[in-house]
């Protein structure tokens, strides 16, 4: 309750600073748009969402010291308001959302430092809030989270956004929080929490509910009725739950499901948020850097193509096979027509 109250106060203060003529007032619709852009940045962290929000800040915030300060206070209150476990399973965890806030700050600092003429002191304006933002973003149970925070601080150090003493203080804050949580962690509790993941999964007796109509059954119940190249539609009267063999699933099946679930999680949560997945015109995944100036965040090449599977669900090998078949059929039809 206290966090939501603090967020409301910080939000009202930010709106008041934006409505003042400093240098020009911002209309209410644009203020509402800012909060929508921030929500997108902290739930789906793509380069487009980061850039769009950054450009809004460049247009309406960075020119005013008062607005930058109010914006920094609001980001801190927003970060404090995130719950450790999101109610919606598709919403990223609080640690990720807090990390995305730092990514937005990083992108804006970089632009105002190297591309604004003259350079704008956006970094100085948000500096008083960064120690707390880094402290909130750390998660002692996630070593990757700590590595990302330290990587971000290393980049800031190499580009001299802040003094070395200040960055060292933030590094110590992240490390101190991590060590503190490690010391108080109960090893037995950690073992208990890890056990459910190691429990063997057993197949259910049926895949699908026999009491529901056919259109509510899983799509896989159509597989036994499908015939290759058959023009006859599936008879819905024969759709029924699939009987499964009792016991644990085959190892290959369990591994395939695990890989699929991880790919879905990566699609929704963005995987490593330092890279952005995209697709080309053929539906093949392309992985791009979050932004051109943040190539140092990437350990991978600038562009990687996933040659295994396309956006439309068909494997690349299957698509090539079907294209060859179609080309072969067209050649045969041309030869038949020429013989006539």
Automatic annotation (TrEMBL):
One of the record's GO cellular component terms: perinuclear region of cytoplasm
Residues covered by the CID domain: 26-178
Protein name: CID domain-containing protein
Domain of life: Eukaryota
Family annotation (Pfam families): CID (PF04818)
Record-level GO BP terms: intracellular calcium ion homeostasis
Lineage of origin: Eukaryota, Fungi, Dikarya, Ascomycota, Pezizomycotina
InterPro entries: CID_dom, ENTH_VHS
């Amino acid at each position: 309750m206290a966090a939501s109250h603090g967020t409301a106060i910080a939000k009202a203060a930010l709106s008041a600073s934006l409505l003042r003529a400093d240098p020009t007032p911002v209309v209410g619709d644009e203020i509402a748009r800012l909060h929508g852009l921030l929500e997108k940045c902290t739930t789906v962290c793509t380069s487009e969402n980061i850039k769009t929000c950054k450009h809004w800040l460049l247009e309406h915030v960075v020119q005013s010291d008062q607005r930058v300060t109010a914006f920094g206070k609001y980001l801190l209150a927003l970060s404090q308001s995130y719950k450790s476990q999101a109610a919606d399973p598709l919403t990223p965890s609080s640690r990720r959302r807090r990390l995305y806030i730092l990514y937005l700050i990083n992108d804006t600092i970089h632009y105002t430092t190297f591309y604004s003429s003259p350079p704008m002191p956006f970094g100085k304006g948000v500096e008083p809030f960064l120690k707390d933002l880094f402290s909130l973003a750390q998660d002692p149970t996630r070593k990757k989270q700590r590595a990302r925070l330290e990587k971000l601080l290393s980049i800031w150090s190499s580009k001299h956004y802040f003094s070395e003493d200040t960055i060292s203080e933030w590094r110590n804050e992240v490390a101190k929080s991590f060590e503190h949580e490690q010391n108080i962690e109960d090893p037995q509790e950690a073992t208990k929490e890890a056990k459910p993941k190691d429990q063997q999964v057993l197949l259910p007796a049926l895949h699908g509910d026999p009491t529901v109509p056919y259109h509510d059954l899983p799509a896989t119940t159509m597989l036994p009725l499908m015939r290759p190249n058959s023009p006859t539609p599936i008879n819905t009267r024969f759709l029924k739950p699939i009987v499964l063999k009792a016991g644990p699933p085959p190892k290959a099946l369990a591994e395939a499901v695990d890989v699929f679930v991880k790919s879905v999680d990566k699609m929704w949560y963005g995987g490593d948020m330092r890279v952005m997945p995209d697709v080309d015109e053929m539906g093949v995944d392309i992985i791009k850097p979050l932004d051109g100036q943040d190539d140092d965040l990437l350990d991978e090449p600038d562009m990687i193509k996933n040659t295994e599977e396309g956006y439309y669900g068909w494997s690349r090998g299957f698509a090539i096979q079907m294209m060859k078949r179609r080309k072969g059929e067209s050649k045969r039809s041309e030869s038949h027509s020429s013989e006539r």
